[in-house]
Design a protein that fits this description.
By secondary structure, the chain is of the alpha/beta class. About 40% of the residues lie in helices and about 15% in strands.
């Protein structure tokens, strides 16, 4: 048996499920926090076959008392904060709610750890969206932040909150700045998942057109199960640091679509652009430098987005009619 207990907020998301699986393999006791049990989507945990191995607890991260109760009962050694309103699109519709949850929840967690046991190790899921309109590529840990969405602004505020607690109270707080990372467990609203699912429908005559926004922008994509390994590695280091987790190269969204279309025998004209799907502010190109993560964490990653697409397409086709 292990004496390590990890709490994961946002466990119902893609990253939460894969992280729970990884920690269970390393003999952790895993506690997963839910906003409520009535609307909890535990598909990811079910898909990975680990639902019964994780203790699921309802906890409102905007309520300090509920957080303190979790710490008192489960005595965690590590806390992975993956909970957030994470949709850029939704953040434009509800900027205040996005900012409130994504910042106050982090303050509540860090204050609780500071008062309960400052030696508890804390991981914060930061976002590449924080960098926004960058001056120079590739992005590094020292790049200037210029967020272009309410979501990105909220994540930048939470990021600096973590740095403040680390530097002011000598707490073991590390931020992982993960660039786009995909898997079968992605929600259907995310770009790559949407492209693959709707392309399969087109290939089977169930749909005619894939409607998209600006697909000439470029992004850095990776594979989620390998990205969560970096989260775990960050909390095993002697000293807390912030790390970029990325593939190190960017591709156009158009090239992703056409790659999937080609694999499924779909003509390129089946992809149509709608101006209504454009964002109010858009980042033209973004990719990161993963040198620090590879050298300091020993994290290994060398997959291209096309390697990842092959995995996702095969998995989606296998599960499509299930």
């Amino acid at each position: 048996m292990t004496n390590k207990t990890a709490v994961i907020s946002g466990i119902t998301g893609q990253d939460g499920a894969y992280l729970a699986q990884l920690l269970l393999q390393k003999n952790y006791n895993v506690i997963g926090l839910l906003r409520d049990t009535n609307n909890a989507n535990v598909f990811g945990l079910q898909y990975l076959g680990i639902t019964d191995q994780v203790t699921l607890v309802v906890c409102d991260l905007l309520n300090r008392q509920e957080i303190e109760k979790v710490f008192e009962i489960y005595q965690p050694t590590e806390f992975y904060n993956l909970a957030a309103q994470s949709s850029v699109y939704q953040s434009f519709k509800n900027p205040i709610g996005t900012f409130e949850f994504n910042t106050i929840s982090v303050f509540n967690l860090l204050e609780t750890i500071k008062n309960f046991d400052p030696k508890i190790r804390f991981y914060q899921a930061s976002s590449s969206e924080m960098y926004g309109r960058v001056n120079n590529l590739p992005i590094t840990e020292n790049s200037i932040l210029h967020p272009l969405s309410p979501y990105a602004i909220s994540k930048a505020a939470a990021h600096f909150t973590c740095i403040h607690y680390r530097e002011s109270y000598q707490m073991h707080v590390s931020c992982g700045v993960l660039f786009n990372h995909e898997s079968y467990l992605r929600q259907n609203s995310f770009f790559v998942k949407k492209v693959i699912r709707e392309s399969i429908k087109i290939s089977r005559g169930e749909q005619e057109i894939l409607w998209v926004g600006n697909i000439d922008i470029k992004r850095d994509f990776g594979y989620a199960p390998q990205y969560v390994e970096a989260m775990y590695l960050m909390l095993q280091q002697k000293n807390p640091e912030d790390y970029l987790i990325c593939s190190g190269e960017s591709v156009t969204l158009r090239s992703i679509i056409y790659y999937v279309f080609n694999k499924l025998g779909i003509p390129e004209f089946s992809c149509q652009v709608s101006k209504e799907l454009y964002r109010p502010a858009e980042i033209v190109d973004m990719y990161g430098d993963n040198t620090k993560a590879k050298s300091e964490l020993g994290w290994q990653y060398d997959s291209t987005i096309f390697d990842v697409l092959d995995i996702l397409l095969e998995e989606e086709l296998q599960q499509y009619n299930h």
